[in-house]
Specification:
Layout (H helix, E strand, L loop, with lengths): L1 H18 L4 H12 L3 E15 L11 E16 L2 E16 L6 E16 L4 E11 L4 E3 L2 E7 L5 E11 L5 E14 L3 H5 L9 E2 L5 E3 L4 E16 L6 E12 L8 E11 L4 E11 L5 E3 L9 E3 L3 E13 L1
Antiparallel strand pairs: 1-2, 1-18, 2-3, 3-4, 4-5, 5-8, 6-7, 8-9, 9-12, 10-11, 12-13, 13-14, 14-15, 15-18, 16-17
Length: 322
């Protein structure tokens, strides 16, 4: 785990060092312009991507396929004197099918709501409080077995409530540091709760396998939390944008050295007003989440354990910014 965290820290530092080379004069201008604008700033981006492949008597072989992926990003930020209130909603859902008789399989599913209030303490520091919620919309299955549900709406659901300080040297980077943080894990699915999924206390069974006491649907943790956000445009014409978000949480009460990591990076390329390409990567590590593991390298996942989880999505399609 220490080696994984070292790799994550180095990669995040490299991304910031690469894209944050801005002169002091430019940084000061950005801070001044941000501080002098009061009121609401609202907007969002809607994206819809579709890919399809069809074959008929094709000598090279191949399978028909279709993939649809949609995303919605909304924000509403308020600046009023020394007070700031930042709100962000991210939704994503995608499905794909391979073969004419295959079933549609979920390729992306995300709900994230983030709300942060801050009051300026000094030039770059704010007293701040944050609430973050994450979950998904639809059931997830243990493919290729689509009869076993391994996740669902609010199974899991994560709620983080934190109080700390927010460091905002400019409009590109912020570091929220909260020594007082509550993290709640919700598993609102009885079968998953009975199995002890996502770190909740599993059910108690008798010798015949009958449930004596159902598993807990709620788990509470208390610890420290850090949220790093970096956003920028990479070229003068603003055709390429970068957004990187990293959440780190340590549970004071149980194995504080096992730090939960959630790191998402999105790079967007604007082709024209309505066409864009995006590549997004998500890295997750949570010692309380077990996934199927191939322990002996034979290609068969015969056990479960915590692992570094990775997801990557490349999409080209329609995009509308408002």
């Amino acid at each position: 785990m220490k080696k994984q965290l070292l790799i994550i820290s180095v990669l995040f530092s490299l991304s910031i060092n690469t894209f944050a080379q801005v002169s002091d004069q430019e940084a000061k201008l950005r801070v001044q312009s941000t501080d002098t604008i009061n009121g609401w700033k609202k907007g969002g981006i809607f994206g819809l991507n579709l890919s399809q492949a069809a074959f008929s008597d094709w000598a090279g072989g191949g399978q028909n396929s279709i993939n649809v992926n949609g995303s919605l990003f909304l924000f509403a930020n308020l600046v009023k004197g020394k007070n700031t209130w930042d709100n962000m909603l991210t939704l994503g859902y995608g499905i794909f099918r391979q073969g004419d008789k295959g079933k549609f399989i979920k390729s992306d599913d995300k709900i994230e709501l983030n709300s942060k209030y801050g009051r300026q303490a000094s030039k770059n520091w704010y007293y701040a409080g944050l609430i973050n919620f994450k979950s998904q919309m639809a059931p997830g299955y243990n493919y290729p077995n689509d009869s076993v549900v391994i996740s669902n709406f609010l199974a899991p659901g994560y709620v983080i409530a934190a109080i700390g300080m927010d460091y905002k040297p400019n409009d590109k980077f912020s570091a929220f540091i909260a020594p007082l943080t509550s993290k709640s894990t919700i598993v609102n699915d009885e079968k998953l709760a009975d199995a002890g999924a996502f770190g909740v206390t599993k059910a108690t069974f008798d010798t015949s396998g009958k449930v004596i006491k159902h598993g807990a649907k709620y788990r509470s943790e208390f610890g420290g939390y850090v949220r790093l956000v970096y956003k920028t445009t990479l070229f003068k014409d603003k055709s390429v944008t970068l957004l990187s978000k990293m959440d780190l949480f340590s549970n004071y009460l149980n194995n504080p050295q096992n730090i939960d990591v959630n790191w998402e990076t999105i790079i967007g390329l604007k082709v024209n007003k309505f066409i864009s390409a995006t590549i997004s990567t998500t890295l997750v590590y949570d010692d309380d989440i077990t996934v199927p593991v191939d322990g002996d390298g034979d290609g068969i996942k015969e056990s479960f354990g915590p692992r570094l989880q990775l997801k990557e999505i490349l999409a080209v399609g329609f995009s509308y910014k408002f």
